[in-house]
Request: fold
Amino acid sequence: MTTVVAMSGGVDSSTAAALLVESNSATTPLPDSAGESHPRVVGLTMQLWNQRRLPRLLGLEEGTATPGHASGRCCSLDDTHDARRVADHLGIPYYVVNFEKPFEEGVVRPFVERYLAGETPIPCSLCNTEIKFAKLIETALQLGAERVATGHYARLRRDEETGRYRLLAGVDRAKDQSYFLFGLTQEQLARSVFPLGEMTKEEVRAAARARNLPVAEKPESQEICFVPSRSYREFIEAYLAEQGQALAEPPGEIVSTDGRVLGEHQGLHHFTIGQRKGLGIAVGAPLYVIEIDRTRNRAVVGPDAELFRRRFVARDVNWIRPVAQGESFEAHVKIRNKHVPAPARVAAAFRPPELDGRLKAAATGAEAFVEFVQPQRAITPGQAAVFYAGDEVLGGGWIARVL
Amino acid sequence: MRRVYLDNNATTPLAAEVFEAMRPFYLEDYGNASSIHWYGQRAKAAMETAREQVARLINCRPSEVVFTSGGTEADNAALVGMEAARAESRHVVTTAIEHHAVLHTAKALEKRGVRVTYVRVGLSGVVDPADVERAVRPETVLISIMHANNELGTIQPLEEIGRVARDRDIYFHTDAVQSVGKIPVDVEKLGVDLLSLSAHKLYGPKGVGALFVRKGTILRPLLYGGHHERDRRPGTENVPGIVGLGKAAELAREHMAEDTTRMSALRDRLEQGILRSVPLVTVNGDPQRRLPNTTSLAFDYIEGEGFVIAMDLRGVACSTGAACSSGSLEPSHVLAAMGKTPEQARSSIRFSLGRFTTAEDIDQTLEIVPAVAEQLRAVSPHYRKAGARD
Reply:
């Protein structure tokens, strides 16, 4: 059994690779019938995005880089130099594979399109389903490997009765990345390995140190890999400029929730739900963006209390645990990466997908209605909503409409 | 795992004799070739011997050999040096299938206002001298056309092109990095004024090469410094490297006939073996006019990148094209210029044999290629679809 390990050059995927090499060497069978002994672990780095394409953003990065805090993102900018050093240290074959084209088509462009449609998209989940667990598994099969390992903090269980795979949160709840993995199909889960699922971040770092991994002390990156400045808007403007398009968004009204015009905005892409700064209006109490109304080109603002909502619809839902159409159940629902899952009632539904610029692959037609027990702050279209039963990921989708 | 190296167009192993020839110039005769004393004289003498060895290989005078840091520098020195030395004649003719060392230099010249014509090639990968003739203008200062293409191995008709250049009094440069040492290269027969070569393609060390500059050719140097290399290339000479290049050139002369016979037989055995055992494979470029060691094959429904990695995991080193382009998104500019689709270009694999390639190496490769091809095709949705149609 040969396993491909996705190596970003960070401490997590490097440690995952190290652990995999050890567990494999413990169980490595004799050379196969042809007398060949093939490598059991192969390191791959996916080259996803060429930062030099948008140099303006790199210049920006220096001025706006902020010191890191606990992990905020799914993965960091690929660092092939560090990944190569680690692979050399572990004595495994290592290659860089170029996925720039599928990444741009499957992740960056949908990200830009959804943003321009008034959403606040999270590209990492899309990257996992479209790239890491689709293209990478394909590449693994091309190389004669059967499985793909990553450094995600998540666990997999195989249900012996049904043969289905269950996806569980990582043991380290602060580092848990199951939120980003809701889109994995059974076929993808069957080929996945998460060596860090049972470990805490501290244990991972200790394991890296114990093995003298050259990246053991490397700080974590906080960026979305292709948005170096951490400013979506800057990225989208630069990306559109590169494509020869201007970000032409007409000015419009900023209105209160009861319809009063409070001011003018210079294009809706300046806003995201829950945003307070940069509204350009001065009223007594602090105002937040409550809603982005594309059809009327309006930003709706109001006091913090109005950010709290109970109901939304998720589209393109992927059910990891099978759910019948019309079935409804209690679950804990997580609506952004740093959100603590909150109790809700989830009802599965189906609607024929409208292929409006979304990826066909992601357009499953499966929807879910979610109603929280307590209103939640800033339910944001474009973010992923993931349904949990305790540790287990039942499924998830993309927040489409807040009701 | 027994490993097989079939990427000799990327680089060759150092010949043991070359290594031995170089060794004393690191440890004992370490003088600066410009120094007056005994140490300097030893280094200088060795360097001049190397110059003679290189000159003999390409049939020029020793004084026409300028040592450089390699093929890329030699190409740059020829193109940039030619342009910088002339104020008026500002047109260059080259081809769309040059190595990036020429192609990207030409692009840089364009930014400085030089006009460049990129002559196209057909599916054979061979330049038509008539196209070169048509591309020439009264203000053309330089024609730069590679001798043998690194990806395909195709050999260009330099003699005919040389006549075009000579008739019109245009300087003629060739990037002969892939041909020198593999096939006879004679600057007189080819009619070239400038020729780039590199040591590590002929079992010499990396980081050293040479530019042949025909006597009387005016070039402005790329770098400024001391009076080394008759003011053509400043900087303390890489004496061990130059000695290695000289020895490699001498060995190439001795081995060429034998290497050619043996390598082309092994290459044909590999090519025929693959064509027999794997369906949907075609040879890229002219199968006659090419280097004895190279074959470029298009495997339909196969991603070249995956193929190379899968082969490497089984111990065989080959490549998708130029090593310098590995990891780049764009499919080979050479295959694109020949009119291949991006899919065909991405499915192309280059095997390049060397002096040390054995029949056992070829047999081992032939054993695994069908399995690797099948493994990759099994993952290709297009292949499955095409299979269902049959």
About this structure: The longest strand of chain B covers residues 294-299.
